[in-house]
Amino acid sequence: MTKKQTKDQEQELDEAREKPAPEDQAPEDQTAREEAPEIEDTEDVEDDSEDSLTYSNGVIEKIVAMATREVPHVLGMKGNFFHAVQEQFGVENLTKGVTVEVTDDNRVVVNISVIIEYGAYAPDIFEDVKERVTERLTAMTGLEVAGINLRIEDVVTPEEYREGQKRLAAEVE
Fold first, then answer.
1. How far apart are CA 79 and CA 76, in angstroms?
2. How many CB atoms lie within 10 A of CB 131?
3. Residue 120 CA to chain centroid, in angstroms?
4. Per residue in 104-157, pLDDT tens?
5. Which helix (H) or strand (E) holds 27?
C-alpha cells in the first residue's frame, strides 16, 4: 500500500467517526426518517411464511421396506396374516415387516422383520440391510438413522419361499 492510500483510508475512518449519531442529527434528517415506511412489529403478527417438510411414518416404512428387499438373500418381509390376504387380492403392502419410531430429535429407529435365504450368513445380511436402509433414507429424506433392529423371522430356501407364497394364495382364494 502506498502512503497516499493509507492516508486516504485514515481520512475516511476519521470522517466516519465525526458523523453525528442518529439522535444527534438535525431536525430535517429526523423528518426524513419519519416519512420512511415503517416495518411492522412481527411479534404480534402471525407469520405464515414458516416452511416445513414432514413425512408420514408410512412413507419412511415404505422406503425402508423397498431398500431391504434390494439386499441379496432377503427373500421377503414378515408380515401378519392380514398383509398376506391383502397381497393375494392385488394390494401389495410394501411396508409389512417394518415399523419406525421417530425420536424427539427427529432421528429414526427402524425395526425390520425379514425372511432370509437358507445358507446365507445372517451377520452379513444385517450389515447390508443397515447400509442400504441408511443410504436410502438419508438420500431420499435427509433423516438421520438412530438405529436399525433386524429380526430374522424365518430361514428358507428360495424354492420353499415360492411354494409357501403359492400355498398362501390358494388358501386365500
1. 9
2. 13
3. 31
4. 888 999 999 999 999 999 999 999 999 999 999 999 999 999 999 999 999 999
5. helix 27-35
User: Comparing C-alpha atoms, which of 169, 52, 150 is closest to residue 109?
Assistant: 150
Distance (Å, rounded) from C-alpha 128 to C-alpha 134?
10
Nearest to 125 by CA among 153, 99, 145: 153
Residue type, 3: K
d(CA 128, CA 98): 16
Candidates 91, 92, 59, 89; CA nearest to 76 is 92
DSSP helix/strand/coil, 76:
strand
Q: pTM for this structure?
A: 0.63
Supply the pLDDT for residue 104.
86
- As a whole number of angstroms, the distance between CA 126 and CA 118 comes to 15
Angle at CA 170, nearest 5°, toward 155 and 62? 55
